[in-house]
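The protein record quoted in full:

***
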Amino acid sequence: MRTIKSELHVGKSNSGLDLFCDLSLSGSHLYRMKCESFLANLMKVIRMYMGGTSQDNFYNGYGTRGWKNITNVIIGNDHVDIYAEGDGYWMYDDRECVIISGLEGIEGLNGQYFRNLEITEFGRLNYYRVRLYNMASTVTGAWDGSSGVAQAVYYGTYDRNNYYTMPLRWQPEIGTSNQPVNASDLSLPGFFKRGNNRGAVSISSLLTDQESAKFTISRPFTNESGVLKEIHEIGLMSSDYANDHMLMARDILDAPISLDAAKTLSLDYEVNSFIENFNQDTDTGGTNGGWTDLFLSALHRIARPDSAYNFGTEYLFACGLGGGGCGINYDSNRVKDGWRWGVRVGTSNKFVSMTDRSLNPDSSEINGVPHGYSDGQLVHHGTHIGELVVDDLAGEVYFPVERIFENRGTLDITVGEIGLFANRNYSLNIHPHLFARKALAPTDQFTIQPGQAVKIAFICKAIV
């Protein structure tokens, strides 16, 4: 069977979802940087919610009780004991991951530690103390006595849930570590929390034109530690609401910013989606397209500082809802045609605009090739959300959204466009919206002949 693949990018310049940041020191603009590193966490969330499926190696920060200040670090012969604030249970028996961030004066401890059936990197001693195994020989220096935070989270295979797994209320953060970025990072290793007055988060409305859509997330940070801090890293993290403190982006600055005591560093993150190879004539300008503003609108909904849990959150991004012969029955009053969700195809190759709402955009009532067994129709098999791959060496995180189309009619069907339809509504009243569209140049178009089946896949890929 022939397979047609098309990529939807996250983190690639001028192609799909992208991230920029303006940095200002005490009111003076320093520079604007192209951020490189959306992380695996964000891709795992998108995959989980697209398919309504479980996700392995998933960060689940529900019930962390927030970051706890580290109160002591004791180095043993072959282990290190970390003590944290005891105002409530910091370390439950069932937590599968411990994250240590922002320790200064001592090297080799900031990071993420796991325990499961295959690995045991830490153990719980009591509700305020955890032991890191086989660490003493890699630790150098001495803790400064006043830095560092810790949290214990769930980390394993989890199902989509309207409260526990959706990262809501995104907020910028800063840190002091220059450790290289990995796609699998779960926190800023040098997270500057103690002694840092982390100001209120604000978010702009969604701004859209024909070529792009964007919104901005802003936050000031005032150094109240009494000493100079060298800021090496910045990131985007969810707040302590629902899935607490999930890290979705992290970047290392080209040069550190010296943040003196009482000085303020401000970050203005711009989350942007671009049409790849934007042009107004696909035949001469080439294949173009990517995520639409409706995809970015769904991200904006969960990123807002006032975003709140409700009963519809878990249906955002949903697109893996079965094939042509399937209906989705949420209750007795709601039955949807499964073929209308996920990957679909059309015959128009009119150039893609960020505000496209349908395939065949000049004839929205057509909206692509319908499901069926007659001429001009295609049998839509079920949409499949494939395995997510995290490749730290290549700096890539990706998964496929794919569907098999079968021509049971007697006439050829030439495909000039590919779309991805998913839910954007914030309730049980779900509806398929156009989240992505690719218009194909003549050399990229393909024909599905009578009796032929073709698999078509969107590869959702983050480049870290």
Observations:
- Residues 309-463 form one domain.
- The chain has three domains: 16-59+158-273, 68-155, 309-463.
